[in-house]
Amino acid sequence: MTVKENLFNQCCEFVEYRLQTIQHTILDIQTALQTETKSSVGDKHETGRAMLQLEREKTGNQLAEITKIKEALSKIDPKKTTKTIALGSVVYTTKANYFIAISAGEINAKGKKFYAISPNTPIGKLLIRKGKNDTIVFNQNTIKILKIE
Could you give the number of structural domains in the chain? Predict the structure, then answer.
């Protein structure tokens, strides 16, 4: 398995875990709403239901966001390589190594540390469409692109 395939698989696992967590939370809220309906009366009941409704709305927004992230990840072909940095590129620089995919934080692959970042992050925007030996300036640091996979 290549570094890119390893990073891609770890990002997929990250998204699946978040998706399952959100779905579990939605089920818990629905159960709590049903229980709240059966057991409470009066103002306390209304406050409890309102809080659960707000929580359900927030969780629904999280579900929509993780669905978008999963869709972005589905556009990546881990076997494809490009000469310029694009969605799905593994980028080695003088400062750090990046996997341009989703914002999933630090990931270790084949004994090296990578940062899974979205192309919409500040550094992601600077890296997109750059090539090997190009430089970018990020946080007053000049960073050279050493290799793209």
Answer: 2
